[in-house]
Specification:
Number of strands: 11
Radius of gyration: 13 Å
Helix content: under 10%
Structural class: mainly beta
Shape: globular
Amino acid sequence: QVQLVESGGGLVQTGGSLRLSCAASEDTFFMYSMGWFRQTPGKEREFVAAITSSSLNTYYTDSVKGRFTISRDNAKSTVSLQMNNLKPEDTGVYYCAAIRGVTAIMNPSRYDYWGQGTQVTVSS
């Protein structure tokens, strides 16, 4: 069982930056690809970014390309999401999640473990 704990959310103005972090409990963290998802009330959880186990490949939804950067540190069992030039539409609860392999890496239903989420609010 992998336990994931997110941190770094908060309130920021449009154009500002936040850095989200996710710490994993497992020594096998390096075996998992990791993803970030976000959700707003009444909407389904949507894919934001993902990174493969060795950091060889990263994936982003179109709306965050050029603004968000996902990275990981396998030695520390952490994954981060650097968010720059934030927009009000980036507001939501952000979740990190772990998946074995890379198949359907953008599909939240394929992920094995989830954190509890951290709120990001971008004011206009």
